[in-house]
Amino acid sequence: MTHWVRFRNEAGVGFGRLEGDRIAVCKGDMFASPADTGDSVPLASVKLLTPTVPTKMLALWNNFRALAEKLNQAIPPEPLYLLKAPNSFLAPGEVIRKPASYDGKVVYEGELGIVIGKRCSAVSEADAPGFIFGYTCINDVTAAEIIQKDPTFAQWVRSKSFDTFGVFGPAVVTGLDPAKLSVKLVLNGQERQNYPVSDMIFGPAAIVSRISQDMTLEPGDVICCGTSVGVGSMKPGSDVAVTIDGIGTLANRYE
């Protein structure tokens, strides 16, 4: 199991393996035989960035049985997903900003994220795991009242693509069995979500295979696997943290 991170310090932007309280600095391409430089830096001396720079982030809806049952939603025959715009991407420790143009409810959604490791197009479900580099934590922030604001058009992309609404990190972790993971979200010190990834309707291999039939996935692209019960609103001044054991904690403030 390896924790890959990107960071910025006085030397610029770099990446490497998180090993305890230090980062073993690497060179080359994180997704294609990265090489050790022999250097390491203290974690406390750097600013963590988003662990990848995706060409796109996709987010699933209605992908957990418990939430589908609570909302009285039918089990979908295929993954239902949307795009979150790149301007929304936000690193751990940075501030989620309340949109100036919107006064409604803003909600958190703690999720598991799939990170693609190599170009992926029209792959089978059996082959899909070979295209998954690892997993990360997601907070799929949503301006909930925009989705159905216009009765003629559901505005999923707009509601989820405000600046700072695509939060992910702190690391991409390889060598995990996602079926054994749980997603926890804590808001202002109180646990609001705690659900098993094994409750997913479509697992990671099925998700990657199905989406790759529609579009080419590139190294570093992120797929948010959807959320489960416990979604709720945040007020400005809130601290929100998504934790997945084995990956880490994605902590941010909402202002």
Automatic annotation (TrEMBL):
Residues in Fumarylacetoacetase-like C-terminal domain copies: 58-253
Keyword Metal-binding applies: yes
UniProt xrefs under InterPro entries: Fumarylacetoacetase-like_C (IPR011234), Fumarylacetoacetase_C_sf (IPR036663), Rv2993c-like_N (IPR018833)
Source organism (scientific name): Usitatibacter palustris
Residue stretches making up the Rv2993c-like N-terminal domain: 3-51
Coiled coil, from the record: none
Alphabetized UniProt keyword annotations: Metal-binding
A Pfam family per the record: Rv2993c-like_N
Top-level taxonomic group: Bacteria
Molecular function per GO: acetylpyruvate hydrolase activity; metal ion binding
Name by which UniProt lists this protein: 2-keto-4-pentenoate hydratase/2-oxohepta-3-ene-1,7-dioic acid hydratase (Catechol pathway)
